[in-house]
Design goal:
heterodimer, A: mainly alpha, MetI-like fold, B: alpha/beta, Rossmann fold, 35% helix, 24% strand, globular, membrane (chain B), ATP-binding (chain B), MetN_ABC_transporter-like (chain B), transport (chain B)
């Protein structure tokens, strides 16, 4: 119990003094996870919208696959990207393994199916409401995709948050492709895992507190922004 | 503001439509020429809404065909649904959306959309969220949105069905304005008084068949079928 409270005190001191190691880890974590969300959104949201509006053979199979991939274990995503980026792999010449870039790719792979599957669900409801009206305007399937993405923007914000939550909380993928190199690829989750196993509980706890605070703050800010926007735009 | 080339007459030939094995229209012939509004009258379930959707090209007939000036061609005209869908955007963006689809540059489509909003008395609400409007305002916005592209034919499905009398009067005035600017209005209603006020011509539909197509004055003074006569007396309900 006293160990815990001592660690807690030390953790708060680290946070309060803006410890440099701590700040660097936090910054990199945010950079990697936000980049991963953006990359995954570029693919996942249009794919989700297309699956919501288009009817083609194989659509059902894709949806089932995406739903299954929502549960993709982070270590598997990490392993796949590791194999692709390792020196003897097909993309080995890029020299990305053990860089933040590789971590972005791995997290993007992990959350793109989540963004696609969730946005498909959200936009399918919107499409049911819009389909006849948009056809009357002469908008075909392809043209409906950007319209749905824009008109579903508030719901999609929640989808993006789910992706960000998953990316910032996972440890397996970034550990494998980033290597947890101090000052270079060490992020909050890998640092927590390492420091806990080393017994440096204050740093681990401080990182844990910050991680939770960030996830909370991001979600709260998004909720406030969403409510305000919905009040304006209906 | 209309296209210089006319695509009328709009002709339906032996038009059939069935859904789930139930026949809704049984081989219907109808010709729509330029001129004052055509009101499609008939009791509930007569097939009025289905007929509008077929004419507009939203659904594909089970049999027969629809031609614009003799050619099958792509769907034309604009339609206002009984419950129009308001895009989750501003009033102005709603009115401008069909123009955006048509590829008009931003400044031009905003000017055209503002002009359309002005004609329905919504210019002052242009920046409001469309879904925050009242039912009557939404219907007026739907009319402005349909007219923004200057369609040659405007299809209206029960445009006043869920409106209070004041809102319905405003909508009727807008419809008269659309017809006055030279667009062909084709509308369904089950409201006889409204049909008398707006119609130049009546198509009377009963159980999926077109029983009469006549100038409004003729139809109301001397209906040629017993069903139409019964409908005008308020006796024919289905």
């Amino acid at each position: 119990m006293s160990d815990l409270s001592l660690a807690f005190d030390a953790a708060l001191t680290l946070v309060a003094t803006g410890d440099e190691t701590l700040s660097r880890i936090i910054l990199l974590s945010l950079q990697v996870s936000i980049s991963a969300v953006l990359v995954a959104a570029l693919v996942g949201l249009p794919l989700g919208a297309l699956l919501a509006v288009a009817r083609f053979p194989g659509r059902h199979g894709i949806i089932i696959t995406l739903n299954a991939l929502m549960g993709l274990p982070p270590v598997v995503a990490g392993l796949v990207i590791y194999l692709l980026l390792s020196r003897s792999g097909p993309l080995g010449s890029l020299g990305l393994l053990f860089t933040p870039g590789a971590m972005v790719i791995a997290q993007a792979l992990l959350i793109a199916p989540i963004l696609a599957a969730l946005s498909r669900q959200v936009l399918e409801g919107l499409w049911e409401e819009y389909a006849e009206q948009l056809r009357s305007f002469g908008a075909g399937t392809w043209r409906a995709v950007p319209t749905l993405l824009w008109d579903g923007r508030f719901a999609l914000l929640t989808v993006l948050l789910a992706g960000f939550g998953r990316a910032s909380a996972e440890v397996g993928a970034v550990m494998i492709v980033g290597g947890n190199i101090e000052g270079f690829t060490r992020v909050m989750t890998t640092a927590i895992a390492l420091e806990t196993s080393k017994g440096d509980l204050p740093l681990a706890l401080a990182l844990g507190l910050v991680l939770m605070a960030i996830v909370l703050a991001v979600n709260a800010a998004a909720q406030v922004a969403r409510d305000a926007a919905v009040r304006r735009a209906g | 503001m209309r296209a210089p080339v006319s695509h009328l007459p709009l002709v339906a030939t032996q038009l059939r439509y069935a859904a789930g094995g139930v026949a809704i229209l049984h081989g219907l012939d109808l010709a729509i020429e330029a001129g004052p509004p055509l009101v499609i009258l008939g009791p509930n379930g007569a097939g009025k809404s289905v007929l509008l959707r077929l004419l507009h090209g939203l659904i594909v007939p089970t049999g027969g065909n629809v031609t614009w000036s003799g050619e099958p061609g792509r769907p034309r005209g604009a339609m206002v649904f009984q419950r129009p869908v308001m895009l989750r955007r501003s009033v102005l963006a709603n009115a401008a959306y069909p123009l955006k689809l048509a590829g008009q540059p931003r400044a031009a489509r905003h000017a055209a959309a503002m002009a359309a909003l002005d004609r329905v008395g919504l210019a002052g609400l242009a920046t409001r969220a469309a879904r925050r409007l009242s039912g009557g305002e939404q219907q007026r916005l739907a009319l402005a949105r349909a007219e923004a592209t200057g369609p040659e034919v405007v299809f209206l499905d029960e445009p006043c069905a869920s409106l209070d009398p004041a809102a319905a009067r405003a909508v009727e005035a807008i419809i008269a304005g659309i017809a006055g600017r030279g667009a062909k209005v084709v509308m369904t209603t089950h409201d006889l008084a409204q049909a008398r006020r707006l119609a130049g011509e009546i198509a009377f539909l009963h159980r999926g068949r077109l029983l009469e197509q006549a100038p409004a004055a003729t139809f109301f003074s001397a209906p040629s079928t017993p069903e139409a006569a019964a409908f005008l007396r308020g006796e024919l309900l289905a």
